[in-house]
Amino acid sequence: MIKVRDIIIIICLLMFSAALYFASGNKEGSTVLIEYDGNLFTEVNFTGLGDEEIFTYYLNGTTIIVDKNGAYFKESVCAGKVCVNSGRISKVGQIAICLPQRVSIRIEGNGREFDGITG
Amino acid sequence: MKRCGKNIITLAFFLLTVFFCGCEQEKETDTFYAMGSYIQVTIYDVDSTLLETIKTDIKNVEEKISHRVENSYIYSLNKEKTATFDTETYNMLYEAVEFCGASEGFFDISLLSLTALWDFDSQKSFVPSSEQITEALEKTGYENIYFGENNKITLGGGVSIDLGALGKGYACDKAVQSLRDADVNGIVAVGGSIGVNGTKPGGEYFFVGIRDPFSDNAAETFAGIKLKSGFVSTSGSYEKQFESDGVRYHHIFNTSTGYPVDNELISVSIVCNNGMLSDMLSTACFALGTEKSIPLLEKNDADAVFVTKNKKIIITSGLKNFISVKEDFEVEYR
Amino acid sequence: MKKLNKLTLNAMLSALAVAVSAVEGLLPAAAFMPPGAKIGLSNIVTMYASKTLTVYNALAIVVVKSVFVLATRGATAFFMSFLGGAASTIITAALLNSKKSKYGTVGIGVLGAAAHNCSQLLVAVIITNEGVLYYLPFLIAASVVTGTFTGVILHLTLSITSRRSE
Predict the structure, then answer these.
(1) Where are the domains of chain B?
(2) In principle, which of B6, B132, C11, C68 could form an S-S bond with B128, CB 3.0–4.6 Å?
(3) Residue B200's closest CA among B178, B223, B220, B184?
(4) Which chain B residues contact residue A15 at CB under 8 A?
């Protein structure tokens, strides 16, 4: 069932995935793109938001919350609630999708993140 | 053996990436509210006592110079028209009044009668009558501030002090001083005033965005400035404002008329090596307008980003290699 | 194996693959995994098929399973299921049937799972953008776990059924 080679493969794959994980730096995103039917509905830059600033979006039966820590599906009329269970996303590349309602939220970093904003 | 070779390479790769990326993560951030603003401090060192020190620094500044804090120096001064200060604050006020003179009164710290009348911090949209404004204006004028012996300051002419136009920059100075004392790099944001010590690990400059004055979203920016050990403050008509009978009123006053400044500008951002100065200059230059600001900036070795109401950006040449502006703005360098 | 038995076996395995796929589809999305990523239990079925029948039979089963997914979960899920299943089947079939293989069933299961997950991620990258590559480390780590699991089950199944047919 298990041979020596298998163990080697497993170790190599695990190290490789760990290396990938640290190499990507796991960037915190800065913008959430809300898309409906593949089209961009709105883009929100959440890094500069204050503690009390919360944006709520109602899109085709889903309720999306965006605050300074990212975005998440709060509610949805869909049957599976996969989207709601995906929880909060905030890192570049993360994505939460409500497939039945064709709504998705996706995090992007703008390449150069600001360390502060004046104005 | 083939297997060992492959293993060693993967292991090496893994260790290298961990080493390089592990270094990036050493920083700490603290956020809190003070001086009526949202404050964010990020230091590149794992030292929470330093964060506490900086928090205390900023809160101390508020306790000393806010005219709203009972028994602060300024509160007592405004009430009794005379007060004794600690040396640090006495010197700070002296410098502030000197600047009032240098700006020919376009910047003035004695405007409390006027700012209290308009009361932008309450949510009311109140436009005072011209009689009320004239009356309030009579009780302003930095020339009525007398610096006496033994750190004593006296106010004449019924004037009262409001340091709202320099408080945040001054708080940044204190915070950055603590960073310097601890030899730690970091960035402090007190509302829209930002102070930076050193660079990020690896020599990368701090990158500070300038809020887009034409957007309602406070997190939208139109430009970014690279900063190394410096300060930036911004004054804009979009910050505190209300509309009444179709007219927009904002909180930066023309010190002669008592009404909000009305010129070509919508915002000004100042970059220099002192926080209080950057804050004062941002208000002064907003009131002076682009042309009249240039000599004042040169004298104070400061740079500026002016944004006009028709989306034109004027940047002083000192910032040329340190700023990037988004495409849909017209840029002119001076 | 007689021809009729082969046909029956094919049919049974196809049905099994579809059933397993349906059950998997009900599982909720896990954290740190891209939405839609599944454990790949149906790979046990296709691996068993490639060992006891031929790789072409196994691929046919993949097609049947994917068409089912197309009908129940839509086009995106179809591409993911088909490409993931095909990649995993081809690789595991090659290893299972090779006489010189130095890999145990667990290793084959892991490699099959890795191939399955990487192809699925590739589909996701094409459909959205390269941002989803963020999930790659997690998918590879997951394939180690799921591959081990499917490999163990495959081994047990093979030894039980081969004993029975003797």
Answers:
(1) 67-162
(2) B132
(3) B184
(4) 10-11, 14
C-alpha distance from residue A41 to each of A33, B119, B127 (Å): 8, 39, 39
Q: Maximum distance among all alpha carbons in chain A?
A: 65
Query: Do chains A and B meet with 3 or more Cβ pairs nearer than 8 Å?
Result: yes
Residue C164's contacts (CB-CB under 8 Å, 6 or more residues apart) are none
* DSSP class of A111: S
**Within 10 Å of residue B35's Cβ, how many Cβ atoms?**
22
Interface membership of A6 toward C (CB under 8 Å): yes
The CATH homologous superfamily for domain A31-108 is: N-utilization substance G protein NusG, insert domain (2.60.320.10)
Along the 334 residues of chain B, how does pLDDT read in single tens digits?
Answer: 444 445 555 555 555 555 444 444 578 888 888 898 888 899 998 878 999 999 999 999 999 999 999 999 999 999 999 999 999 999 999 999 999 999 999 999 999 999 999 998 887 888 999 999 999 999 999 999 999 999 999 999 999 999 999 999 999 999 999 999 999 999 999 989 999 999 988 788 899 999 999 987 777 889 999 999 999 999 999 888 888 999 999 999 999 999 999 999 999 999 999 999 999 999 999 999 999 999 999 999 999 999 999 999 999 999 988 988 887 789 999 9
Chains in contact with C via at least 3 Cβ–Cβ pairs below 8 Å? A
Task: Please tell me if residue C94 touches chain A, with a CB cutoff of 8 Å.
Answer: no
Q: Which pair of structure tokens corresponds to residue B44?
A: 């590149």
Judge whether C73 and C25 are in contact, CB under 8 Å: yes
| Amino acid, res. A59 | L
CA distance A88 to chain C (A): 9
- Whether the CB of A52 is below 8 Å from some CB of chain B: the reply is no
CATH superfamily to which B67-162 belongs: ApbE-like superfamily (1.10.3980.10)
The residue whose two tokens read 């190599």 is A12
Residue A22 contacts B where some CB pair is shorter than 8 Å: yes
